[in-house]
Design a protein that fits this description.
2 domains; 6-stranded parallel beta sheet; single chain; Rossmann fold; 35% helix; 9 helices
Length: 259
């Protein structure tokens, strides 16, 4: 544990690691206080693309945890940055909410439902059959298909599991024969962007997450120390199913804090 506690930077997933719904998980306040006291660099990295950075900061504030929005990075931000690097000043048809739309605007993109360069899909309550049909038409006409993250499911208030971006994209992929490019975890792009924001090397950093199929595999592929917490999706009984394993398995982030 001393090696883990000695890391200069921590990349932390949010849902299942920091909170469930609108409630902080046990040990989170102590963990964040320790990060700040020890002057650790840290970033909350989430595959969710629905909320803006400000909204995420305000959400934690409502739970009693004050963290500046500079400490957040989302798959929406990573997606917008990727598209801007590929086609600066481009346009996109978006099935998604404020998080992805604002991120695209910040990167100089416009929203276009006629002849966009990209069709971008993320989790959204505004997802419906009409939008699926329109997205399919645009992809068949040449727009490139992008997913903010590959998650098939995700939790909502009360712990219920609902379809996430990967599942929402499936009808468009099947109807067009196109395979979406996913930017969020475990894509190494997301991890490299997080390290750049932290200003740290991978050897100095640990990633803390609750999912083997996104958080832990992202850390393994980026050669970053991995910490699985059992406060979210993956449980200890699930570990034998995976060919890769985390460096640490803890009950929650509070276990990282020295006693």
């Amino acid at each position: 544990m001393k090696n883990l506690q000695g890391k200069k930077a921590f990349i932390c997933d949010m849902d299942g690691v920091i909170y469930h719904g609108s409630k902080l998980l046990p040990g989170v306040l102590e963990f964040v206080e320790w990060l700040q006291k020890e002057e650790k660099k840290f970033i909350f990295l989430t595959n969710s693309s629905a909320k803006t950075l400000r909204e995420l900061s305000e959400k934690l504030a409502r739970m009693g945890l004050k963290v500046d929005e500079s400490h957040f990075y989302t798959s929406a931000r990573a997606t917008a940055a990727f598209l801007a690097s590929q086609r600066p000043g481009g346009s996109a048809y978006v099935i998604g909410d404020a998080g992805i739309i604002n991120a695209l605007y910040d990167e100089g993109y416009s929203i276009n439902d006629t002849n966009p360069d990209y069709v971008v899909v993320s989790e959204s309550p505004n997802y419906d059959y009409a939008r699926i049909c329109h997205a399919t038409k645009l992809v068949l006409n040449g727009a490139k298909l992008i997913g903010t993250n590959p998650d098939l499911t995700g939790p909502i208030e009360g712990g219920q599991i609902v379809p996430a971006t990967g599942a929402l994209l499936a009808p468009i992929e099947l109807a067009t024969g196109s395979k979406a490019y996913y930017v969020g975890k475990p894509n190494p792009l997301m991890m490299r962007n997080a390290l750049k924001k932290l200003g740290c090397q991978r050897e100095e950093t640990a990633i803390v997450g609750d999912r083997m199929d996104t958080d832990i595999i992202a850390g393994v592929e980026a050669e970053i120390t991995t910490v699985l917490v059992l406060s979210g999706v993956t449980q200890r009984d699930d570990l034998p199913r995976y060919a890769y394993q985390p460096d640490y398995v803890l009950n929650g982030v509070g276990d990282i804090v020295p006693t």
